[in-house]
Amino acid sequence: MNSAAPETLTVRVYYEDTDAGGIVYHAAYLRFAERGRTEFVRKLGIDQQQLRIETGSGFVVTSLTIDYLKPAFLDDTLTITTEIDRIRPASVNFKQTVARESQIIAHLKVRVACLDGDGRLTRLPRAFAISP
User: Fold this and answer.
1) What's the whole-model pTM score?
2) Tens of pLDDT along 117-126?
3) Residue 132 and residue 128: Cα distance in Å, rounded?
């Protein structure tokens, strides 16, 4: 098994991500984290669209917890860091952080399962044969 280094993604907070007070709306963090996981999977060499076309398989979030530590604001530049915490045959647990400069403002733990075209659990693609 190879090891996968954490992946970072930088995002800018836009008006659409905030409430009327300019504070990032809680659900926006989920979109930022999804982008981070997508880039992580892409770095592993997995093209999710191609995976679906070739095998009918895809990924679905089955569990998610988030701890909001500090607010983010309109025009902030945030860094989303994604790493693998645990790998099982049909699922992977990710740890993610959202940071502004060097200050972590949110922690996420996300379990993602791999489902076949009929919605049943199936083995993760070989690219996940890595050690967390």
Assistant:
1) 0.91
2) 999 999 998 8
3) 10
